[in-house]
Amino acid sequence: MIRRKSVKPSNRSINRGLLAVALSNLFVLSAGAYFQEGWSVVEPIRSGGKVAINAVYYEGREIWLVGADGMVLRSRTDGRAFEKVEVGIDAGLNDVYGRRDRLWIIGDKGALAISTDGGRSFVKNPQRVHRRGKTEQAPDFYSVQFIDNDRGYIVGDEGLILASTDGGISWQEQSSGTDAQLFHLCFRGKRGWVVGTGGAVIHTDDGGRNWYPQRSGVSDDLNRVYFLDDRNGLITGDKGLLMRTENGGATWERVQLNVRDALFGISFIDKNTGWVVGYGGRIIRTYDGGRNWVEQESATEGDLFAVSFYKNRGYAIGRDGLILRYYERR
Predict the structure, then answer these.
(1) Which of 135, 184, 205, 288 is deepest in the core (most CB within 10 A)?
(2) Three-class SS of residue 258?
(3) Is the pLDDT of residue 158 over 90?
(4) What is the mean pLDDT of the chain?
(5) Model's pTM, two decimal places?
(6) Could you give the C-alpha distances from 108 to 29, 43, 79, 156, 244, in angstroms and in order?
(7) Mean pLDDT, to the nearest integer, of 7-19?
(8) What is the spatial distance between Cα 208 and Cα 62, in angstroms, rounded to a whole number?
(9) DSSP 111-122
(10) Taking CA 231 as the corner, what is the angle to CA 228 and CA 236, rounded to the nearest 5 degrees?
(11) How far is CA 66 from CA 52, 58, 102, 183, 192, in A?
(12) Please, what are the domains in the chain?
């Protein structure tokens, strides 16, 4: 069960949840939102047309947002202001992942851009995947993760899993054993989990050389997967679905929540403290690794799609340009 926990009120709120924000070359957070404790709604300066934002990545120094039409935004001021970054791609971008000075951005139609200098420059490396019996057009990529500077993975349409051992220069397809759309992946060393449509969960113990299904016990679409360690993990899904495992996914149990809205993004700052966001402005927090959850006041009913935390600060993004910032004194 979850219970609602109040925080201070705000100063002011893809397919499967495309998220829109109006921007010029720069938009700025209000000072009130920046210094407010708890969740607060940040409203960007609105100028020009709307551009969809699909993912957020925050690692303490910089915040990265990616979205439609090859849009990439970066903040070097802990979210006080964002600037456009040109990567030379005009396709929709769905995910961004970073390790120190390296960044990988992926998107529709095999879009891939890589930076090795902290985002000062990017190299396009589009991937044309030729798959027997599959759709001829370039597949859409949905999620990317690297476990070190060389070894990384991408998942996407029609059960697609790609693996790289050279930092993303070259990629090899792995046999997933499913035709489900694969929305998200999580790796810890050689162990990895991937989730997607129709309750699909697949797992590898050997870096993806072999994948096998795990029983989720549900048929709803699964949106995100997150593992705290080799044994303890969480999955979010449609219709308020939240599942957890304590045995590496051998069995999954449903967490009982009074939630019917789809749940999406997951972010943890340690083995106990984490957040999940979803539609209808839903934000829930755990203090015990996912066993119990407290609902937090988000000051919005807008749909939330992704969240990223670093220590005592976090950012969530949502439909129609919705950006939320979290801060707490420690």
Answers:
(1) 184
(2) coil
(3) yes
(4) 86
(5) 0.87
(6) 29, 28, 27, 9, 30
(7) 35
(8) 31
(9) -EEEESSTTS--
(10) 60
(11) 8, 12, 16, 16, 24
(12) 2-7+47-294 (2.130.10.10)
Strand spans (E) along 169-251:
172-174, 182-188, 191-196, 201-204, 212-213, 222-227, 233-237, 242-245
What is the pLDDT confidence band of residue 36, given thresholds at 50, 70 and 90? confident
Q: What is the per-residue pLDDT for 35?
A: 59
DSSP character string of 14-28: --S--EEEE-SSEEE
Closest alpha carbon to 60 in 269, 264, 265: 269
Task: Give pLDDT tens digits for 192-216.
Answer: 999 999 999 999 999 999 999 999 9
252 forms beta bridges with none
Residue ranges in the chain assigned as alpha helix (H): 31-35
Amino acid at 125: N
Q: What is residue 35's DSSP assignment?
A: H
Phi–psi pair at 99, nearest 5 degrees? -140, 110
Q: What is the pLDDT of residues 72-100, one digit of tens each?
A: 999 998 878 889 999 999 999 999 999 98
* 83-116 core/surface letters (b: 16 or more CB in 10 A; e: else): eebebebebbbbbbbbeeebbbbbbbbbbbbbbb
Q: What percent of the chain shows pLDDT beyond 90?
A: 68
**Residue range 250-261: average pLDDT?**
94
Q: What phi and psi values does residue 265 have, to the nearest 5 degrees?
A: -65, 145
The tokens of 217 are what? 């016990």
Q: Please, are residues 36 and 64 in contact by the beta-carbon 8 Å criterion? A: no
Lowest mean pLDDT among 5-19, 150-164, 201-215: 5-19
Q: How far is CA 287 from CA 22, 56, 70, 269, 275, in A?
A: 35, 23, 37, 11, 9
Measured in degrees and rounded to the nearest 5, phi and psi for residue 192 equal -140, 155
Alpha carbon distance, N-terminus to C-terminus of the chain: 27
Q: What angle do CA 159, 201, 230 make, to 5 degrees?
A: 120
Pick the closest to residue 328 from 4, 5, 3, 8 (CA basis).
8
